[in-house]
Amino acid sequence: MIILTSHTETTTRTFEAQFKSRTKASQSMFERASQHLPGGVAGNGKYLAPYPVYVKQALGGEFVDLDGNRYVDLLMGGGVHILGHSSEAVMSAVEAQLRLGTHYYMAAEAEVMLAEKINQLMPHIEMMRFVNTGS
Is a pLDDT exceeding 90 seen at residue 27? Predict the structure, then answer.
């Protein structure tokens, strides 16, 4: 059982009131999302009480919500954005690959090159397979 002091309760209520006043577009999006997505989000990790912040844009180490509020992104996509959101190096590489094709579902030179690079950096990994785990 969690026991909150009156100061903690007051601070929590004040924070929630400020949050709600600054995030009206996210609240509206949450109501829309709740019609089609369980809990209003596509995954449990995205939920924030009383409703999540819906991101409109992200750049570097920040993101902007639908209301225009800026936040420091401490999650960074669970670590995959170590270079920041919309990194020029990553964007250029993705754009170059898109010009070659999007999803072959066939063996490709890029797979071999990636496997060789991983083996070069970590020789103890002799064999590998690239798959989507669904997580």
Answer: yes
Cβ atoms within 10 Å, residue 122? 10
Give kind and range of the element (H or E) at residue 70.
strand 70-72
Q: Is 107 helix (H, G, I), strand (E, B) or coil?
A: coil
User: Which tens digits make up the pLDDT trace of 68-94?
Assistant: 999 999 988 877 788 999 999 999 999
- Strands of the 70-72 sheet, one edge to the other: 55-59, 62-65, 70-72
Residues 6+ positions from 41 with CB-CB distance below 8 Å: 33, 47, 52
Give φ, ψ of 51 to 5 degrees.
-165, 155
Task: Say what the pTM is.
Answer: 0.72
C-alpha 66/C-alpha 33 separation (Å) is 14
